[in-house]
Amino acid sequence: MLQELKINETPVRTSRNLNINNIKIQNIEIPETIGKFENVNIIGQVTEDVKGSYNLTYGLGNELENQVQQKANRKFKIVVEKNKNQNVEIDFNFNSQNLNLIDNIEITAMENTKSTIIIKYKSAENIKAYHNGIIKVLANKNCKLNIVIVNLMNTESNNFMSFENLFEDNAKVNYTIVDFGGRKSITNYYSNLLGDNSENIINGIYLGKESQFFDLNYIGELRGKRSNIDIQVQGALKDTAKKHFKGTIDFKKGCKKATGNENEFCTLLSDKAKSIALPMLLCSEEEVEGNHSSAAGKVEEKELFYIMSRGFNLKEAMKLIVKAKFNKIIEDNSIERYERKFNNNIDDTYVSIREFCAAIGYKVDYEENSNTLILTNLQDEV
Question: Where along the chain do its domains lie?
Fold first, then answer.
């Protein structure tokens, strides 16, 4: 059934001129009959035991949130037990028999744990898939959690995702969010850094083409003393693709010596691509440090000239420039950020990392002697 959705509101209202306080999506097809979704591959310990309901602090909106609470066709619970390490990978693969996915995933990292969670959404070509999901994370004291989200859905599908994170003292959570798929891909990300010395690092990559539309809403509330949030987002748009970025860092009363940084940069590869960004800092505490920036621009002619003077053609030069902008995020998520072994199998550990690097044109090799990832052979067309 075709509907109109008004979703993904900012925490505070801003100027109407940008027209991104929320978004209105017209003629969006919300499936009434969900059916089963069985094409899921799981590595690691996962239970299908998500019970009860809860209200998200922000989320995408009541209609999409209620759909997950009431009609989820996959519910997973991941618990990393106290003083243990655990790795999990969940691959959702859309095809003609598995078109609609409503997933509800709860992740709990107990005290003194270390874990990596990789969740991937991938659709076959020539289908119109639908995804609406909630990922809720509870990071207990002294845990270290790496979460990788990879969206490789096709450009005929729709993708809606809400994240809710709660941090206790000294909890460290690193997110890598790779957003390449979906005709419309809408993300609401919220973190409540309640604990002292808690830390949330978010690295995002998006790549839009054709008429894709991304609406990215990142919200971090800092309450713990010396808590820290760092949001780094890089993207590129070509054809008539469009992106909204909304980033809000809110320093709450009592978060003395907290720090917050957000940076978003978009490379425009066509005159018809459009990027709008709204970074915000809110502050109710004096002794804090906050920084934000956003920018969008075309590939500079002098950069193209320099690279082309070294023997590259125009297409190759543009590819190198765009991928160089992604490179910092890839490097920051080096091998130390991910567990080195996944059931004692290096290739299985890095399957999702290999795929998202391949999606932006990198061949990934693993050098065992030095424990490093080697990125070579730029192949993907930008």
Answer: 36-298, 301-382
- Look up residue 96 and give its two tokens: 């003609």
If 0-12 CB within 10 Å is exposed, 13-18 middle and 19+ buried, where does residue 221 land? buried
Q: What is the pTM of this model?
A: 0.83
- Nearest one of 56, 54, 66, 76 to 30, comparing CA atoms: 66
Say which residue the tokens 């067309």 belong to: 381
CA distance 229 to 279: 14
**DSSP per-residue string spanning 261-311:** EEEEEEEE-STT-EEEEEEEEEES-SS-EEEEEEEEEEPPHHHHHHHHTTT
pLDDT one-digit tens code per residue, 214-224: 999 999 999 99
281 exposed, middle or buried (CB, 10 Å; 0-12, 13-18, 19+)? middle
Specify the DSSP class assigned to residue 323. H
Angle at 245 between CA 239 and CA 247, to 5 degrees: 165
Judge residue 341's burial from the number of C-beta atoms within 10 Å of its C-beta, 0-12 exposed, 13-18 middle, 19 or more buried. Answer: exposed
CB 188 within 8 A of CB 179: no
* Residue numbers of the chain with a pLDDT score lower than 50: 333-362, 364, 366-368, 370-373, 377-382
Short-list 90, 84, 91, CA closest to 108: 84
* Closest of 196, 248, 202 to residue 227, by C-alpha: 196
Q: Cα(192)–Cα(199) distance, rounded to whole angstroms? A: 10
What tokens does 58 get? 């922000």
Quote the tokens at residue 157.
């599908």
